[in-house]
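Dear support,

We are seeing what looks like truncated structure output for some complexes. This example has two components. We would appreciate it if you could run it in full and send us the complete token output so we can diff it against ours.
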Amino acid sequence: MDLVGGRVVDPDGPLNRREGLRIVDGRLVEPGDQADLESDLMIDLQGGLLTPGLSDMHVHLREPGYEDAETVATGLRAAARGGFTRVACMPNTNPPVDQRSVVELLLARAREACGVHLHPVGAVTRGLKSDDLTEMAELKEAGVTAVSNDGFPVFSSRTMRRAMEYAKTFDMLIISHAEDEGLKGDGVMNEGYWSTVLGLRGIPAAAEEIAVMRDIALSRLTGCRLHIAHVSTAGSVDAIRRAKAEGVPVTAETAPHYFTLTHAALQSYDANFKMNPPLRTERDVEAILQGIVDGTLDVIATDHAPHSQEKKEVELDQASFGIIGLETSLGLVMTHLLRPGRVGAEDLVRLMSQRAAKIMGWNSGHLRAGELAELTLIDPQATWTVDPELFASKSRNCPFGGWELQGRAALTVVEGRLVHWEKSRAEADSGLLVRAL
Amino acid sequence: MVKRRHLLGLRELEPLEILEILDSARSFREVLDRPIKKVPALRGITICNAFFEPSTRTRVSFELAAKRLSADVLNFATTGSSVSKGETLIDTVRNIEAMKVEMVVLRHGSSGAAQFLSTHVKANVVNAGDGQHEHPTQALLDLYTMREHLSRLQGIRVAIIGDVAHSRVARSNIWGLTKMGAKVVVCAPQTLLPPDIQSLGVKTSYRLEEALDGAQVVYLLRLQRERQDGGYLPSLREYARTFGLKVEHLEQLPPETLLMHPGPMNRGVEAENAVVDGHRSVILEQVTNGVAIRMAVLFLLWAGREGTPAVREMLREGSVG
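Here is the complete output from our reference environment:
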């Protein structure tokens, strides 16, 4: 397969800024090598970007237990369409990912799916309760490199301390769902002007910030690598920035909705804007953007959280938290970060591929000759309107329906195989030309 | 108002629309004093009172208002949430609508329920209280009562005392009063004041005496007893001591000052008995005016449906009263 005419974007990689790539037998080869071989597929992307495969270190695939909202197969298909070659799925399933058998089930399901790599995240504590630690050594043997109680904070500081000490023993990453559950109470949106106007119970920014600061203190105490999930507030960004300057082994992620939407969106009482942590203020959005630009926030993840229509098309305070994001993330990042010039193409690759791979210990996030090809071909000119009805995801809980976005994945390649190819759209909307099949 | 399909809250109403409702209510208020308290304004129209939350006075008031307008009334009540019954709110009301109901009066424990419903049904939706969001007809009857006594709303000073944080009545009153040019101060311990309440155009005070200074209306909010269990208050006793209205407070107030309460009241908590039953109290008048306000709202929403010959004819004949 020859990919010609596109610019390779792989910061610090040997192929950076080259034109085009060649894939032979699933592996990348040096451009120019084996030129005599007949290519079985030649794709000409004028002005396109060839990047290492995008990684999403925070998704929910709902299997096992909630297959009406998503399955491994549909979730990975959505990932492929969004340009992702690897995703990490969170353990709050039913049963949760707190033992080897569930990890094995997920990996088996992934092998039957479209080819996108799946990395299950194990639970920190059994049953996602705040009591007993999981058998992390065995979980690691089964293929888990990080543990998290995502969706449920580990509310006991003592348990979190022990979890960090134990995880460090096996060099496992702890991903923190930073939330003071008591302070959150039965809140449904950010506490502030709009919660007052709308009469909805608020979740103060402090509910996140207290937990971020606690977990940073415990990381400092134990030396365990800590990753803060879905950062949404200015105070959290500040705390993480200070901790990093001090040398605490902490990394962090945010999600596209935290730099594209504010709590004012809840005016419609549309549960597609109900997420946890909640959408915050303009000031928080600015701080998130700043954190992305200055590297305080390492990663853009999606926190893809599918819910069936019955869980969302109800009164707001009774609706489930969360939105899907795999198929909109790249477009939102390109439209709202790349196009206004807040980040460049190389930053995008760091934010959406390389840093997640590094944090999670994945052998991806780079393009090197001789390795199995794992890449995403981005068409930065493609303009498209978000229509959740067309998504591969089983759920439709997306707040971006109707938004005009510029930029999307035209092609996703895993181990040299096409797992997604936006053929008709790519041909129609851009300079993408397929010369031979 | 006549251009709107629904009454969801006072936040979205223009001052002129509020005035239109208050003026219409005055006509309907006269109807209530007639020997035969009934007009044919909504004859042939079916109104469903869908109450998903316990309520006596609001439901009865709406029912009476509908009947005074000659509408047919269907009462639908359930305690607890619709979801707990296994049917969603939309499905429940779509079923009612399938029985050819023209208007739905909705009381619901979830903020935004009326707005949510209005996007899913063809009927006119009247919000009869949604969670902690708004209770527009209550605020309209409050504005009506204030205007009747003080002859204006512009520039009057209103002190709202009590659990503002959890009160839909407070929110609707704040929108209505500030739009009409009144000066509003809210007074409660910080635990019962919502964040950024000042952004709604009101002052805040933690001291009752300060809030009452120069007030022409003292509006007491119902203190829900569960606030004590929720950790908002150490005890009802301390609340009554610190924020309860006492006879000596009234003595400091101008002679025309009104005492109002949306009811039901906790005697001895929000105010001393002697205050509640005193001559400044217009609490029962509020109840009477509520029927007139609800008649006005139901009528104006229905009249706003263009192309309804019966309504046009009625308006031409001036059969409103």
